Amino acid sequence: MRQTARRRAGGVALTLALTGALGGCGVLPPLPDPVPSDIVPTSPADLSPAAGGDALSPDGFDAVERMAVRIRNVGCEELSTGSGFAIDEHTLITNKHVVADSKDLEVSTYDGHDITVGATSTAGLADLAVVRTTDPLPSHPELAKADPEPGDHVTVVGYPAGGELTVTEGEVKGSTRDPLNANLGEVLLTDAPVEPGSSGSAALDDKGRVIGVVYAKTGDDNSLLVPLSTLQEMLDDDTAFTPASGC
Q1: Residue 59's CB: how many other CB atoms inside 10 A?
Q2: CA–CA separation, 224 vs 187, rounded Å?
Q3: What pLDDT, in 10s, does the model give residues 67-108?
Q4: Rounded to two decimals, what is the model's pTM?
Q5: Most distant CA pair in the chain: distance in Å?
Q6: Low pLDDT (below 50) residues in the chain
Q7: Bridge partners of 88?
Q8: Residue-range domain boundaries for the chain
Q9: C-alpha–C-alpha distance, residues 150 and 195, integer Å
Q10: CATH code for the domain defined by 1-6+15-240
Q11: Mind telling me which residue stretches traverse the membrane in this protein (predicted)?
């Protein structure tokens, strides 16, 4: 069953014991059937539909759930899973480490449809990747106007462990220098729960707008986000992304 959780914590822990990035690390379990029979879709509170989309699809999924995709990286030496999200009808955002060393990327939507992947590009200065698709994507959210502030609500939509669609909630605790040195500048720290396979998930504000991209978790179960400002800067720079290398 899809889980919804919201946790609050005390002060911001700036000394992080990291469990590492949340995708592409070790061999993860194989994917379940494309549409798990035990999914019970519910709508997170106060989330608006994506641009041009209805609040709910006929099968009960809302716009922010429809924009999330599950990514299986059939790699050169191992299988790993991650998440991603659409920003337009043919463009997905995920993490660079989710698509690294890939022989084949298998992308599926909330309702189990497989999406044909075209080109994949990765950013040189951030743990971000752009995946272009041949098939149209069912929904995409808006990007927020600015990075969130400490205390702002955050919702994470993704596929932890390559399993069922999951929505977790929390709040932004602050910003810190990237402990993994995968991104230039500061990253966001939140207490929204994430797990391996959540890498590449969209982090959304209370209006359903993207405010960051999940890329790792800490040893004390906080989540780390590439901020919206970094994502926007990379997308605005024609030289920021280069074709991903395969095996």
Answers
A1: 11
A2: 7
A3: 999 999 998 889 999 999 999 999 999 999 999 999 999 999
A4: 0.78
A5: 46
A6: 1-19, 24-29, 31-54
A7: 91
A8: 1-6+15-240
A9: 22
A10: 2.40.10.120
A11: none
